[in-house]
Each structure stands twice: as C-alpha cells, then as structure tokens.
Amino acid sequence: MKVELMHDVCQGHARCQERCPEVFGTDEVEGKCVILQPDVPPELEHKARLAVKNCPEGALVITSG
Ligand code: SF4
C-alpha cells in the first residue's frame, strides 16, 4: 500500500500522526503532515487506513493496495 499527501490541502491538525505515528509525522516549520513511510508496510496498513479516513481535510490518498 502506498499513501500520498496533497500538501496544499493539509491544514496540519496532526490527526494522522495521532492515529499512526509510524507513517505520519509533522513538519516542524509549516506544521503540516510529513509522510515518513510512503510505502506502508503490511503490519501498519490498518492503522494507516484509519489515519487516512480520519483526516478532516481529505488530504491523504491511498494510491495502491
Ligand atoms: S490529519 Fe490531514 S489535514 Fe491533518 S495533518 Fe494529517 S494530513 Fe494534514
């Protein structure tokens, strides 16, 4: 599974990081999401999907898997 960020859409709530800190971090300058593992390993897919679903801006996209 791969995940991508639509950077312009992200508003920096960090809800993604709360749900799955292994995959999503926060840029310290802009306060927006940073994807730490764009190729999500199988054991983190469930958590990463929850994070994508809970992004209030719809800024995260699963691009495969
Ligand atoms: S939850 Fe969505 S809007 Fe908030 S930081 Fe993560 S990607 Fe950005």
Summarize the structure in words.
This protein is of the alpha+beta class and 65 residues long. The protein is built from 2 helices and 4 strands, in the order E-H-E-E-H-E. The radius of gyration is 10 Å and the shape is globular. Bound molecules: iron/sulfur cluster (SF4).
Short structural summary:
By secondary structure, this protein is of the alpha+beta class. 22% of the residues lie in helices and 23% in strands. Strand 2 (24-26) and strand 3 (33-35) form a beta hairpin.
List the helices and strands and how they pair.
Elements (H helix, E strand, L loop, with lengths): L1 E4 L9 H5 L4 E3 L6 E3 L9 H9 L6 E5 L1
Antiparallel strand pairs: 1-4, 2-3
The structure holds iron/sulfur cluster.
Series of secondary-structure elements, N-terminal to C-terminal: EHEEHE
CATH architecture term:
2-Layer Sandwich
The Rg value, from CA coordinates, equals 10 Å
Helix and strand composition category: alpha+beta
Q: How would you sum up the major sheet?
A: 2 strands, antiparallel
Strand order of the largest sheet: 1-4
- Per the CATH scheme, the topology name is Alpha-Beta Plaits
Give helix % range.
Answer: 10-25%
CATH class division: Alpha Beta
User: Which residues sit in consecutive blocks of at least 5 with pLDDT less than 50?
Assistant: none
**Helix run count:** 2
Q: Average pLDDT across residues?
A: 96
**What's the number of structural domains?**
1
